[in-house]
Backbone:
């Protein structure tokens, strides 16, 4: 089979598709990936044949992809939730298409078209990487369970040896120096090592940090997560699912997009805590993380581990890729 993957040109939208794309390639299928130039690096590294359709840099519209479908003639298009135009193009070309989620079904009003109803290709199947217990109960579209597998570009790196380890990240889109410095001030007071991924914030905006804090512009998150005890973050879907996959409890500081809904779901499941903007301070962050550390309340860690076990029972990318011809018939 020739399979075309397509996504918005951002880490949060492209990286969730890479594990399945790699599994499809390893299964012997020909893989191509349509996305803006910003995410071509890791796709090229893995031989996923990335290209930029038409003049697309971030979004992809149906008219951008239509000529590429005529050129490539794929047997299946896997289009993530952020590119309904790709779903529409596949539908118009008579090519089977399957949606690929990046987490829970995101709420309306965050700037993305919901991949349900009349969004491009109504009634099409979805590769759903959200564990069923956390998925939005109103999401009733046909679903193919797919285990969420964290992805980071290959790197030579090792985590700090000190334990317990608290990982702080605000992602690549919403982080601010003020919030990071506030969180660092609180977390530094704990008996833990704190590893901070700055994202878009420059190191000079943070300044000097205590000895038990390590600041990096970027870390290979997929390699790091199995070593962490608590994750403090913005509530992005990738970090939320990545931490859950390793059974790590989380403190969410939601800033926008789908992050508030993710935080609500995590708190309801008992696997984490949340602080809203008017609740955030160094002391409140420290107090909440102390509760989540191994010597704190065991209930949150137990809930996170239960979801990790649920994720572990979901079909792996290799299993799903093995059945890809059958799934294509559902598209």
Residues:
């Amino acid at each position: 089979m020739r399979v075309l993957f397509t996504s918005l040109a951002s880490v949060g939208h492209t990286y969730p598709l890479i594990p399945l794309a790699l599994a499809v390639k390893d299964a012997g299928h020909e893989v191509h990936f349509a996305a803006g130039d910003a995410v071509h690096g890791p796709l090229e590294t893995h031989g996923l044949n990335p290209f930029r359709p038409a003049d697309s840099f971030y979004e992809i519209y149906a008219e951008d992809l239509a000529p590429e479908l005529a050129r490539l003639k794929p047997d299946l298009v896997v289009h993530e939730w952020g590119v309904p135009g790709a779903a529409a193009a596949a539908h118009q070309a008579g090519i089977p298409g399957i949606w690929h989620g990046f987490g829970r079904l995101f709420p309306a009003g965050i700037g993305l078209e919901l991949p349900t109803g009349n969004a491009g290709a109504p009634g099409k199947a979805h590769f759903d990487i959200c564990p069923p217990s956390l998925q939005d109960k109103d999401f009733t579209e046909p679903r193919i369970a797919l285990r969420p597998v964290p992805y980071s570009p290959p790197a030579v790196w090792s985590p700090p040896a000190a334990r317990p380890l608290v990982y702080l990240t605000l992602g690549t889109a919403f982080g601010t120096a003020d919030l990071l410095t506030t969180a660092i001030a609180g977390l530094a007071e704990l008996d833990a090592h704190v590893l901070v991924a700055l994202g878009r914030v420059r190191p000079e905006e943070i300044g000097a940090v205590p000895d038990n804090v390590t600041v990096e512009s970027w870390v290979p998150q997929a390699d790091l997560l199995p070593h962490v005890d608590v994750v403090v973050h913005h509530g992005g879907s990738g970090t939320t699912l990545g931490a859950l996959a390793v059974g790590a409890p989380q403190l969410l500081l939601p800033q926008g997009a789908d992050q508030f809904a993710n935080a609500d779901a995590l708190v309801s499941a008992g696997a984490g805590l949340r602080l809203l903007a008017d609740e955030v301070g160094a002391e409140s962050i420290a107090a909440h993380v102390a509760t989540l550390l191994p010597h704190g309340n065991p209930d949150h860690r137990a809930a996170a581990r239960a979801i990790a076990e649920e994720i572990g029972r979901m079909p792996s990318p290799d299993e799903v890729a093995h059945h890809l011809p059958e799934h294509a018939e559902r598209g």
